[in-house]
Amino acid sequence: MELTELFGYLGALIVGLVLGLIGGGGSILTVPILVYLIGLNPVVATAYSLFVVGVTSVIGAYKNFKKGLVDVKTAIIFAIPAFIAVYITRRFLVPIIPDSVFTLAGFEVTKNIFIMLFFAIIMLLASFSMIKAKKNTQIDNTTTKIKYNYPLIAIEGILVGALTGLVGAGGGFLIIPALVLLVKLPMKKAVGTSLLIIAAKSLIGFLGDLSNLNIDWPFLLIFTSISIVGIIIGMSLSKFISGKKLKTGFGYFTLIMAIYIIYKELF
Fold it and tell me: Percentage helix, strand, coil, to 5, in the chain?
């Protein structure tokens, strides 16, 4: 086993830790780990990311459900349009993206470069969301009346689903603010509900890849198992670590990763 591959498996543990500690952000790490450390094609990496993050989030959602921190009705309202969008994107849109997307000033932007650059842009947005999420993280009033703005929730679900399908990101950084602002969920319940939504739509998105890709199941199951160990450890550590400080720190780390990806792909 090469050193980079060993770091890749260590990265799987960190993916789980991040999901367990802050309820999102796992896919922000998964795709770069699979591409740059394991050496997978970006299209394959985004598919594998859906499975890894989906299965790992199932564990986190179950543990939160037992604590009463999952709003199932909200998850269903959000997830149905997201399911449709992510499946259509993975099943039909990703396969038709041309190998050469466009050429700019003599620089050819291939399908792989396009996916990684788009992913880096999403990472930038995620980093800003996590760094500036201080106001939202203070909303934790469990007596707040839950409101269902169905049209806005459905539109958000479609957008997040399409994003998940294209870059393999669970979209927790978009889902959690939406649940807090649109549904008025308490922050802790928004995190738990987000994990359930991420799990369901990521796995459904992965189903759209089964007919398009040859899946290396032994590798994928080992990588996912390590990530599951990570989320169990992360959820245990979350009792002792400040989620606000951790999310801000991870936001800065994500920002650095995004800049690195853009630099690596372009230069």
Answer: 75, 5, 20
pLDDT of residue 139: 43
Count the neighbouring beta carbons within 10 Å of the beta carbon of residue 21. Answer: 23
Nearest to 122 by CA among 257, 248, 8, 264: 257
Q: Which residues contact 54 (CB under 8 A, 6 or more apart)?
A: 170, 198, 199, 200, 201, 202, 203, 205, 206
- CA 2, CA 37: separation in Å to the nearest integer? 10
Answer yes or no: are the C-beta atoms of 116 and 42 closer than 8 Å.
yes
Nearest to 13 by CA among 215, 232, 202: 232
Which tens digit of pLDDT belongs to each residue from 104-131? 888 888 988 888 888 888 888 878 877 8
pLDDT tens digits, one per residue of 227-251: 999 989 988 887 777 666 777 877 8
| Cα–Cα distance measured from residue 180 to residue 246, given in angstroms and rounded to the nearest whole number | 19
Indicate whether 224 pLDDT > 60: yes
What are the strands, taking DSSP E only, across 54-104?
A: 100-104
Whether the per-residue pLDDT at 34 is higher than 90: the answer is: yes
Measured in degrees and rounded to the nearest 5, phi and psi for residue 44 equal -65, -40
pTM: 0.78
Distances (CA, A) of 35 to 43, 74, 89, 128, 193: 9, 34, 21, 23, 29
